[in-house]
Hints:
The complex is a heterodimer of chains A (233) and B (230). Chain A is mainly alpha-helical. Helix content of chain A is 69%, strand content 0%. The mean pLDDT of chain A is 89. In chain B, the strands form 2 sheets. Chain B has a 6-stranded mixed beta sheet, sandwiched between helices. The A-B interface holds A 9-10, 13-14, 19, 65, 68-70, 72-73, 75-79, 81, 224, 226-229, 231-233 and B 15, 45-46, 49, 52-56, 70, 73-75, 78-83, 85-88, 90-91, 95-96, 98-100, 127-128, 131.
Amino acid sequence: MKRGLYLLRFFLVVSPLSGLVVWTFGLLVVAASVLIVVAPERTAGALAPLLLLQMFAASSGFAVPARRGHYDLLLTRSGGRTSIALAHWLTSISTGVASWLILASVEALASGRASISLASGTCAAVALVSTIPWAVTIGLPRFSGGIGWLLVLTLAGITFSPGGIDWLSFHSDRHDTLVASWGFFVYPTAAVGRHLTMSDTVVVAPALLVAVGSMAIACAWVRRAALPLEAAQ
Amino acid sequence: MIALAVSARDLTVHYGRRRVFQRVSFDLGVGQSLGVIGPNGSGKTTLLRALAGLLTLRAGELRINGLSPHDAYERTGIAYFAGDATLPGSVRAARWGSLGNGDAVTLDTRPIRALSRGTRQLLGLRTALGRQPLGLIILDEPWEGLDPDAARWLSTILETKRDRGAGVVLSSHRLHDLAGLCDMYLFLLPRQATLVQSHDIAPGAPVTADLLAETFDRLRGDASSLRAVS
């Protein structure tokens, strides 16, 4: 317990998030809160930028600051690198998750219940943007996962649907499952506000499995990674 | 007192295809200190980072108290500091200082990047050395940037911790700081690492910076001759 608290304290001091990202979350929360109160029917739209920013916030990158020696104090303490990786992930996503919960509270206050913000589709989308970008960016510079995701989204849009991005909308009933799963994986924001049915769950499950798998691979990478000092190479 | 022994056998580290050093061996007993001396690029920083368990060895075996470095973290307090450049510049000095053992190392609330180099170095050293208990101290160029008072403080605290049983591994270009503090010296030269006990450098007398420089020059000359012959 004491060890876990130290890990969290360390990453609160040496935050994986840049100040710019934290301030942007603050601005988004204010803007989205106003929108939710003034136009509750646009709550899903108000949450979309938050998910996009969370994608970048989670892309915090572990290896670069570790190779600069910023985490030496932590890495040469007891605790195990898997715990260190998980603490890094938690602190990377915490501001985004807190912002999402604040918006859910605003929605609940404005509409009586947080039916959009806490819908199962929204939860799945938040889970996806909070995990895969972190895992992908573990050995790369900050924001790499978010940038890569945007590239995939753009390329997928061009490749699959030159005339528009209709295929990205969450339609488990219209597309075959594989295409719908791919659509959710590339553009999870489409699931915001949706209460997932059984057929939707089949669409969402592969992406969530990929998320869990990528987290496991990232933790294993941190556990085994050699961290030479940048200046010494 | 923490029983500690570092046993390094034929340590070899590569960065990709480039060999940084090879077949480095030494034993460090409880309450002993080792000085690592070598020219720029000889692998001093890399060796110390490997001892701290932050690098994967290409070959060789490293044991701290009979355990791998990762397992040794659990039982042996390790203080490792690789210089002021490794401190995150945006973090406030007082907050960084609190990460050692929780006590305030400094009340300075400026970001680390706003501090002078010596103050940053001192902050990093105080934070790393503040850990309790401390069984192994690994410091890379610890005297760099320190003023005479701070340098004296560092030498004194290293002697105190060593006398209380901590193993100490130091690298430095400042031979007058290393001289007299270490029980043995590892001279890291390209393609060659030589371990020399201090009593072999100066039998019955304290090791001086001049004697260290003399030994270093002799070993470097030997290494050059060997390369010329081969």
